[in-house]
Write a structure and sequence with these properties.
about 400 residues; alpha+beta; 5-stranded mixed beta sheet; 3-stranded antiparallel beta sheet; globular; binds protoporphyrin IX containing FE
């Protein structure tokens, strides 16, 4: 993969494997050339935004509209396109506002409060056997079952189907990543048909017997929008939250002095979660398209240009964060962009923060000293997301 600057000042080459292993020096390199860098990355030409102020400005500016996940010109992957294009994530106002308003009442701190004891109980339950087993596979035995149980309960989907959701989530995430291959898009297109039929059946059931869940709340809406909202919530509530919990544990076990500081001073838990979010943001990149010509600093972005906002790079911009590569559980202020900003600011941020907090508290209280062999770290083949394949820990 090569990245060349507009004015051919620099030409950067890095293998995808190196990028996935440790992307942060690369972000620093392109930021040092220009925080709004014009180039082509994985054959996606556009503006790569690595500066904090610039990223924040663009995400808040209505002249940068959400970019459709798949080009309108392609006739392929129609099933996938149909569902993705109906998601609030890919809509602009006023449709965006209408869709978001339908579900936002279920994601306020007040509405979520009743769920907290359940999350805590589940977290403790999942960690019960660690001491005897002397090991923990953080993703498969803890983060994934916890996050999937919570979103399933909220949405109103049977928890027993969680392995199926996991498989769908893994393939769908791949279809919106810049590394996506033709084959992955074909699989995604096939899986989305299964997901739609799954949700249609569930919606029919709820119409006959409504419950106090999100699906029942939306029964008056068009079935297409309702299905797309369900798919979005299931995937977002699943995938990124699993990664938030696992990445947080990864940050702590690979920085034992910070883990120690947090264990000694549990009141740092909220600040510690924010630092995990900043340092290893589960969402690394989001995209927009300019709806008109915009001049920012020395960059002139033309109507129709693609903009890739690299959240993971903005979070480590030295102009915003002191010692940006240092993981510091007491860092304050810590205004990272891991949940985005502007009208698309993550709807699930309150829930995700609480889930991570309760998960890490349970982890600190209920597991013996565990360690991780850093040499075995294996990240998934994604650039828009930061996701470990697994995080195997063993008792010291
Ligand atoms: C319970 C878990 C979660 C749920 C239900 C959820 C749901 C959503 C939804 C529905 C949106 C679209 C909002 C809109 O378009 O107005 C969104 C956006 C977003 N979410 Fe989440 N999310 C969750 C967890 C997370 C986590 C853990 C992260 C990463 C730290 C994250 C990062 C983002 C980002 C960056 C956006 C904005 C994308 C953009 O501006 O293009 N989400 N989320």
């Amino acid at each position: 993969m090569s990245l060349s600057n507009d004015r051919k000042i620099h030409s950067l080459r890095i293998s995808t494997e190196d990028l996935i292993k440790n992307v942060y020096p690369f972000y620093d390199d392109i930021r040092s050339i220009n925080p709004i860098y014009k180039g082509s990355f994985f054959n996606y030409p556009g503006w790569y935004v690595t500066g904090y102020e610039e990223a924040s400005f663009m995400l808040k500016d209505v002249r940068f509209q959400t970019r459709l996940p798949l080009p309108e010109t392609t006739r392929k992957y129609q099933n996938l396109k149909k569902v993705l294009n109906e998601m609030m994530l890919y809509k602009n106002p006023p449709d965006h506002h209408r869709l978001r308003k339908l579900v936002s009442e279920r994601f306020t701190s007040r509405a979520l409060e009743a769920l907290y004891p359940y999350i805590e109980e589940q977290a403790y339950e999942l960690l019960k056997h660690v001491t005897n087993q002397k090991k923990l596979n953080v993703i498969s035995e803890f983060a994934f079952p916890l996050a999937s149980t919570v979103i399933a309960k909220l949405l109103g989907v049977p928890e027993e189907d969680k392995e199926q959701f996991r498989e769908w989530a893994l393939t769908l995430i791949q279809t919106i990543d810049l590394t996506r291959s033709e084959e992955e898009l074909v699989t995604g297109d096939k899986n989305i048909v299964e997901m739609v039929s799954y949700f249609r059946k569930l919606i029919r059931k709820r119409k006959q017997d409504p419950k106090n869940d999100i699906i029942s709340l939306l029964l008056d809406e068009s079935e297409e929008e309702l299905v797309s909202t369900c798919v979005l919530l299931l995937i977002a509530g699943h995938e990124t939250t699993v990664n938030l919990i696992a990445n947080s544990i990864y940050c702590l076990v690979t920085n034992p002095n910070q883990l120690h500081q947090l264990s000694e001073n549990p009141s740092l838990i909220e600040a510690a979660i924010e630092e995990c979010l900043r340092c290893e943001s589960p969402t690394q990149l989001t995209a927009r398209v300019a709806s008109e010509k915009v001049k920012i600093g020395s960059s002139v972005i033309n109507k129709g240009d693609q903009v890739y906002v690299i959240i993971g790079a903005a979070n480590r911009d030295p102009r915003r964060f002191r010692d940006p590569h240092v993981f510091d559980v007491s860092r304050k202020p810590n205004s990272h962009l891991s949940f985005g900003t502007g009208v698309h600011f993550c709807l699930g941020s309150t829930l995700a923060r609480v889930e991570a907090k309760l998960a890490i508290q349970a982890f600190l209280k209920n597991t013996p000293a565990l360690e991780f062999d850093v040499a075995t770290v294996d990240w998934r083949h994604l650039v828009g997301f930061r996701a470990l394949k697994e995080l195997p820990l063993v008792v010291k």
